[in-house]
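Why do we care about 3D structure at all? Because function follows from shape, and shape follows, mostly, from sequence. That is the central idea of this module. The next example makes it concrete: a single protein chain, its amino acid sequence, and then its structure expressed as tokens.
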Amino acid sequence: MAFRIIDLTREMRDGIETYPGDVVGMRLDRLARPEAHGFNLSRFAKLSSHCGTDLDAPLHFVSEGSDVASLPLRLFPAVVLSAQKKAIGPEAFSQAGPLAGRAVLLHTGWDARLETPTYYRDAPFLTAESARLLVEKGVGLIGIDSPSVDPFDSRDYPVHRTLPGRGSRSWKGSSASERSLANPACLTSSPSL
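And the structure:
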């Protein structure tokens, strides 16, 4: 069976924005250029964990949780769902079929707002009920094209706290058009999931 590989991550570049409250997502210092030094050399001056497409390791909200480097590399069978509500409730998963051990990729269309002032405001998010349902169903990873699985103004982060504490992970800020996603699918990520 032929398949195609689609990169759902955002392009990382100097000056990319990050979650509000951080100054800049990524900044590169150019240390050498071919014209002056005969070679290119750069270093990361800043790299926020919340710029681009990011994976929340359990350690993000669970003090004894694993960090990203400790998570095993996995290839998740995935199901792709379209979700058009701001608050994505359990009903969004009612026709998804079996979810145990799968990645659930939600396409909300929010990625069309990337690099605009509205991207981090009023974005779609999962409800706490959805997080509990996905954990009960044994989902390995939930992916969404908005910047967070919780509401922007959340102070208690119920989804962030529910998923990793029970073995699921969240992957946020993906960049994919609905036409590029199709079922069946598989998902992997580097360095690891």
